[in-house]
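quick one before i forget lol
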Amino acid sequence: MLRTTLLALCLAALSLATVVADETPAAAAPKNRPLVEIMTSLGTIRAELFADQAPTSVATFLGLADGTHAWKDAAGSEQRKPFYDGLTFHRVIPGFMIQGGCPQGTGSGGPGFAFADEINADSLGLDRALVLQGDQMNPQCAYMGQQFGQVIVRPRLEAKGITAATPPEQAQAALQTIMPDLQKVTLKQFYEGLGYRYDAALPASQAPVTGVLAMANSGPNTNGSQFFINLGDTAHLTGKHTVFGRVIAGMDVAQAIGAVPRGDSDRPTKPVIIVSIRRVAEDGAAAPAPASPTTTKPANP
């Protein structure tokens, strides 16, 4: 059954000219894990940030939050003021996540720049987990059959001279010969084929479990200002989003945000406002503003 599905996906891909390319207990935060309070119209969420695991993500998030990191408004003018104040959680899905940080409130906006992912794939086991498990795809990527066909199976079939015009029997025979190779492909190799790049020199990355903060993106290395808080475990997002913090208090607030009435595109029918995001000391007092983060290359328009 799996072979038939893979063959169908690959033959379809071969006919294309191009491929178009989701509350932990509170504890004292380590020195390299700053604390922040996310004040919302429904209450306050406190989180610790993993500056050890994702230094650029944390520095950028803090810099945007307090206005020390420059960003561009819709007119292209550079701004240095708190970016998140007054924005909304524009996408909320119960049991999955709440997402905010878009200046347009639609999920399509950002700060006028993008920066790279910070993920140690090996620490997450992606270098050992196989895409194919018997006759099934790994649950972490079961919804990605078409992409697997395009970036992994298709090149191997093309190397054997298989095209969209190849008779099905011949294509099936070729697929049988490459199955032993396909059975060895890891999730890391698959995701790298999609454009993701990993850094084994980083400390171990946190898996995307309930309560983590992670960067929202539109693909590899497209991080900006949008982030989400997991309301449940999301194994299928492992290796695809930089996890940069976790909720240590106020998870009930995050869950309440996820439960508000929604309209189109999972947007709350009554806006849930991000009043402010500020760094705080362990005693709850406002912490000194962090140094400006390393400048990152702007995203292409």
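fyi The longest helix spans residues 145-159.
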